[in-house]
Amino acid sequence: xxxxxxxxxxxxxxxxxxxxxxxxxxxxxxxxxxxxxxxxxxxxxxxxxxxxxxxxxxxxxxxxxxxxxxxxxxxxxxxxxxxxxxxxxxxxxxxxxxxxxxxxxxxxxxxxxxxxxxxxxxxxxxxxxxxxxxxxxxxxxxxxxxxxxxxxxxxxxxxxxxxxxxxxxxxxxxxxxxxxxxxxxxxxxxxxxxxxxxxxxxxxxxxxxxxxxxxxxxxxxxxxxxxxxxxxxxxxxxxxxxxxxxxxxxxxxxxxxxxxxxxxxxxxxxxxxxxxxxxxxxxxxxxxxxxxxxxxxxxxxxxxxxxxxxxxxxxxxxxxxxxxxxxxxxxxxxxxxxxxxxxxxxxxxxxxxxxxxxxxxxxxxxxxxxxxxxxxxxxxxxxxxxxxxxxxxxxxxxxxxxxxxxxxxxxxxxxxxxxxxxxxxxxxxxxx
Length: 432
Ligand SMILES: *[C@@H]1O[C@H](CO)[C@@H](O)[C@H](O)[C@H]1NC(C)=O
Ligand SMILES: *[C@@H]1O[C@H](CO)[C@@H](O)[C@H](O)[C@H]1NC(C)=O
Ligand SMILES: *[C@@H]1O[C@H](CO)[C@@H](O)[C@H](O)[C@H]1NC(C)=O
Hints:
Layout: H1 2-5, H2 7-12, H3 16-37, H4 45-52, E1 84-90, H5 95-105, E2 111-116, H6 122-133, H7 136-141, E3 144-146, H8 158-174, E4 180-185, E5 188-190, H9 194-201, E6 209-214, H10 220-225, E7 227-230, E8 243-248, E9 259-267, H11 268-275, H12 281-289, H13 299-306, E10 314-315, E11 320-322, H14 340-345, E12 350-352, H15 359-369, H16 405-418
Parallel strand pairs: 1-2, 1-4, 2-3, 6-10, 11-12
Antiparallel strand pairs: 4-9, 5-12, 6-9, 7-8
Bound molecules: 2-acetamido-2-deoxy-beta-D-glucopyranose (3 copies).
One 2-acetamido-2-deoxy-beta-D-glucopyranose binds at residues 338-339, 342.
Pfam families: Branch (PF02485)
Keywords: Glycoprotein, Glycosyltransferase, Membrane, Transferase
Membrane topology: Single-pass type II membrane protein
């Protein structure tokens, strides 16, 4: 309720046209989200649309914001914008794509750790580190890091999990104030601006873990859970593919297996639980998953859903737009300009996968992010007004957000995911 009473301050920082729909939707968001998290079940999607009937049309196309520089906000006046810690991973040849993803995703509030795995030559890693060092925005915010001592990563093997945990551990050590850990690859791309994402997340409870999961492991029981694999990446200095042992093992009875998308948005407290926690479950499962095919599609899912403390915090979605091959849905299809409409409509925050410099990326920059070529995605922190230079070369207050139409699309998705009929009923459900 505190948040609601403090809304008026918000008014002064936004342009008129936005006020009514934005506040109405924000107020309802808070109520709905609170209701969802407390599982009161009082609110529904229907209630929201009936409220919107009385409001002026949402003028996405014409939305404009005043350039604004506010003073330091009085403490607690708005829900403070959160911070994300991104791990962006890639391999040989991914250096320049990684720069592009970073420009599209950059916001001075967040942290970014770039990992080019051991297959990438040292030269490429050094080039990336040079690029990072020479960007004045990064130098000022000190929030972009490059892993120098790279890991050997076998994509279907446990070395992938090891690299992800390593990245999260660095980010935990490096900065004490981020709220969510997001793992991306160089072939992912954002569909909304960081201002949009930070804005919507500022209204969410800080304990929600976004992870797509199911305990209905189906064919994976035979092809994933029973085989025993070894990943030579753990002990050899050159990469070779995983190999299978002749023995098979039983499906575990000490815990239930969950599986799902390898793309995750996890809370700081859950990452601490996995990396520094005193509960032994994350370690036991890490060792179990050492011999599991495609462990990134199961490790965090199984830890979360077998932990009393965290199973209540799962939201069953990875916030990505991904299209798959026809069953068994093992390979994401490359997205092209033909997918633009669907990926926009999905409301997702990220999409994958994209081929190197595919034209659809230019379209996304142009229509969804308003990102000029080679520059940062503009946001409330970019306050330069000289039209010849990058507006982000002059940095304003990083807590000032300018959410655009993407916030609206993403909010719709989050609404849906947290609606009473979706949220609780999709958490770690297991048959019986
Ligand atoms: C993290 O992101 C990478 C993309 O590089 C992905 O392949 C991996 O499986 C993800 N998930 C985990 C749990 O490591
Ligand atoms: C999880 O949710 C259930 C029911 O929704 C509740 O009974 C339980 O106390 C919650 N546990 C935690 C740790 O919040
Ligand atoms: C977009 O979505 C529609 C409806 O789900 C589907 O029929 C269509 O094939 C999709 N288009 C592409 C290019 O995937």
